[in-house]
Design brief:
globular
Length: 67
C-alpha cells in the first residue's frame, strides 16, 4: 500500500478531524492512504470518498495535530 505525505499545517482532508482513513501523525506531516470517507455532516463531501488532498469549507483540524 502506498502512503502519501501531507504537511500537518495544510488544510487538506488528510489533516481534517472528519476524514476517515488510515493515517498517522509524524513530526511535521501526516502519512495517509490516498482515499478516505468524510464524516462531517455539515460538509458537502459528507459520506463520500475523498482524496487526501481534497479541501472543503467545513475543515476542522485533526485533534491529534493540536499540540
Amino acid at each position: 500500500m502506498k502512503l502519501y505525505k501531507t504537511s500537518s499545517s495544510s488544510k487538506y482532508c488528510a489533516t481534517c478531524e472528519y476524514w476517515g482513513a488510515m493515517r498517522q501523525a509524524r513530526s511535521s506531516y501526516v502519512e495517509s492512504e490516498e482515499w478516505g470517507i468524510c464524516s462531517n455532516r455539515r460538509g458537502s463531501f459528507y459520506g463520500k470518498e475523498v482524496k487526501y488532498k481534497d479541501r472543503c469549507t467545513k475543515y476542522v483540524k485533526w485533534i491529534v495535530l493540536e499540540r
